[in-house]
Design goal:
Blueprint (H helix, E strand, L loop, with lengths): L2 H37 L3 H14 L4 H22 L3 H17 L3 H15 L2 H13 L3 H10 L5 H13 L3 H9 L9 H13 L3 H13 L3 H13 L10 H7 L45
Amino acid sequence: MTVRKVVIGLTLVCMMVPAVSAAQAAGEKAFAEGGKLLQQGDFEGALKAYTAAASENPREESYRMRAALVERVIEFRKKLDEEKDDQQWATRATALHVFYHMNGVYGEALKLDQQIHAKVGSTMSAAMLARTQLALNQNAETVKLLSDFDGKTTELQILLGIAQARQGEMEQAKELAAASPLGDDANPEMVYDRARLLTQIGQTDEGMSLLRRYFEITHPNWLGQAKATAQDCVDFASIKNSEAFTKVLATESSIKASGCSGGASCGQCPSRSKCSSVKTGEEKKEGCQEHEKP
């Protein structure tokens, strides 16, 4: 190869690098914009931004998957408005609630959870609404909701305790903490919420122990989001820079991932036959975070 050819080749490479970098930067910017629009409840705008991100950087599969997910959510929202069967409506609404919380779309979650609680009026719907109100720092509203509610489950007592602690009602919060111990079979949300409550009332060691337990029982696909949520949570603000909190954030999940290929459909997934939760006739996989959304 002549020197001239080498020089020409290097020149072409140098000309190509800025173009690739520019496309990547544009894709990252569009993807970040999509996240902001999504949190604001602008689903159509978020879809356009995620689609643009995928177009700018087609090799980034997560961009394409995110666009497909938001497109499904838009369709899911339409179907919810059209659903006449109360049970089906509640099922769809609960799925949307999960998506909203995982993506910080709390404004939409509040409107939806108020509808759910008005229709269902159960301890579950009260807990869903209370968690959304707490996410929006509507602490007084949470206290009123749960104080007026007849069912005094462990879950609701913990959430009420968090709201009261935030309002400086520490004695009441401590009483609720003492009256709401967790069993070994407590679900992850309750473990996380009690970690928040104990930390708020000064029982930091116990709170961090529960937060570690929460991370351990969180699926690997969701662990990053779970840790980011904990870092932003006002209930951990007093210990955010502590060594104990930093150590807990290093906790790994004890749940084994399924080896999901990350495709748009489980039906064509090469890991389908190895996935523990795939059953005959079902299009769902344990460990497939995107597939389990609406």
